[in-house]
Amino acid sequence: MNKSTHFSGQPTFSQLIKLIPKELIHKAVGEHQSDRYYKKFTTWHHLTTMLFACFGNCNSLREVVTGMRALEGRLSSSGIKHLPTRSTFSEANQRRDCQVFEDIYLALKHHWDNVFPDSRKSLENYFIIDSTVITLFQEIFKGSGSSFSDGRRKGGLKVHMAVPINQQSPCVVHIGEGADNDLVFHKYLTLPSESTVIMDRGYRFYPQFNLWTQMKIRWITRLNDSTHYDITNIRLVNANQSKNGVQQDLEVVLGFPQAKTERVIARIIDYIDPITKKHLRFLTNDLKSQPFTIAQLYAKRWSIELLFKRLKQNMPLQFFLGDNKNAIKIQIWCALIADLLINVIRRQVKKKWAFSNIVSLIRLHLFNYLDLISFLEKPETASINQINPTFQLKINLSG
User: Fold this and answer.
1) d(Cα 102, Cα 159) in Å, to the nearest integer?
2) What is the C-alpha to C-alpha distance for residues 234 and 227, in angstroms, rounded to an integer?
3) pLDDT (tens digit per residue) in 194-222
4) Alpha-helix runs per DSSP H in 96-133
5) Is the pLDDT of residue 76 over 80?
6) pLDDT per residue over 83-97, tens digit each?
7) pLDDT tens across 246-304, in order?
8) pLDDT over 60 (residue 359)
9) Does the pLDDT at position 339 exceed 80?
10) Which of 330, 284, 336 is nearest to 307 (CA)?
C-alpha cells in the first residue's frame, strides 16, 4: 500500500503551537502577573486551550473541555500538562486580564515580522484603518442601531484595526462598544511621520486631520455628503485623467467659516470608476499626487474588508465562551493569534493556498501526524512508498 511521505513526529496542533516562542509568553506573564493566582491553569495553558477552540471551531466550553480530554495523549507534545475543567476555564476567562493576550499577539506579530521582513519597502508606512461590528446575543457591550419593538436589542462590540497595507494582520487593535463612534480609535492610533493612512468616512475629525498634516502624514478618505467646503482652486483635468475616470479636481477649505471648529485645507477628487461606473468623491490632504493615484490608493482599503470577512468566516466568533467583556476580548485576541499563525504558515509555503483551504486542512488534521509545511508545499506527492518519521519545521530566514 502506498504511504504518504508527509508524516511528522508531532500532531499538526503541536506544530502550530511551537510557532509561539515561549519567551514571549514569559515576558507578558511577568509584566501582568497573570499566573499569580493560578497553580495549574497558567497563561500558557489558557492560550493553548483557546487556540484549540479556534482551530477546532468549538462553540461552547463543554466542546473545548471534552474535546481536549478525548485527545489528552496527543496534547502532551504541545506542552499541555493540565487539562482544565469547565469551571476553571470559565473562571480564567472572566478573571485573567485580557491585556496579557493582547501583548502576546503584538509581540508575536513583531517577532514574525522580523523573521519575514517584507521586501516592498515602498509600502512600509501605508496603513488602512476601519472597524467591524460583531453582534452578541446579550447586551454585554452596548450595541448600535435601533431597538426591537419590545424595547430590547442585541448587544454588540466594535473592533477597530489599523493594518499595514503590505501585511495580512493588524498592528493596532481596539475592542470597544458597538455604539461607540469611530473617532474613539484616534487616541489609540500612533502613526510614524511621513506615512499614509487610508480610512472610511467614519473617521472624519478635523483636528486630527490638521495634526496629521503637521506631521506630514498623508490621509485619504471619502467625502461625506454633509461636509461643507469652500472651493479655493479648480485644477485642470486633462484628457488622460478624464479617460481614467477623473471628473473634477478641487482644492478646498473644509468647515463653516463662522463656526468655532477648525478648518482644514484639503483636496476633493470626483471620480467615476471606468469598470463599475460608481461615482466616488475622495478627500485628501495630498495636493501633489495625480488624481488617479489617490483613487488607486483608496482602492487598497478593500483589503481590510477581506480581513474582517476572513476572521468572521474562519474563526469561532459567532458564539463566545463567556458572557462577560473580558472573556469576549480574550476570545477575539486569541482568534487574531490563530489567524496570525496560519499566515505564518502561508508565508513559508511557496505554493499558493487560499486561507480558507489551509484552515479546513488544519481543522481536518488537527491531531494527525501530518508534516504541515511539507504537505502544503507538495500535496501531489502524498502517495509515495516512504515515511518520514521526523518533524522539523523549516523557517526560511531569508523571507
Assistant:
1) 13
2) 18
3) 999 999 998 999 999 999 999 999 999 99
4) 99-115
5) no
6) 889 999 999 999 999
7) 999 999 999 988 877 789 999 999 999 988 899 999 999 999 999 999 999 999 999 99
8) yes
9) yes
10) 336
Place of cell 508575536: 108
Residue 103 CB neighbour total at 10 angstroms: 20
Grid cell digits, residue 293: 493615484
Q: Whole-angstrom Cα distance, residue 110 to residue 272?
A: 39
Indicate the DSSP class of residue 52: H
Distance CA 19, CA 341 (A): 7
Q: Which cell is 185 given?
A: 480609535
Contact partners, residue 286, CB within 8 Å, separation at least 6:
218, 220, 267, 294
Gap between the Cα atoms of 358 and 364, Å rounded: 10
Find the length of the chain: 399
Question: CA-based Rg of the chain, rounded to a whole angstrom?
Answer: 24
Chain centroid to CA 69 = 31
What is the rounded CA–CA span in Å between residue 377 and residue 365? 16
Which residues have a Cβ under 8 Å from the Cβ of 382 and sit 6 or more positions away?
A: 4, 5, 6, 375
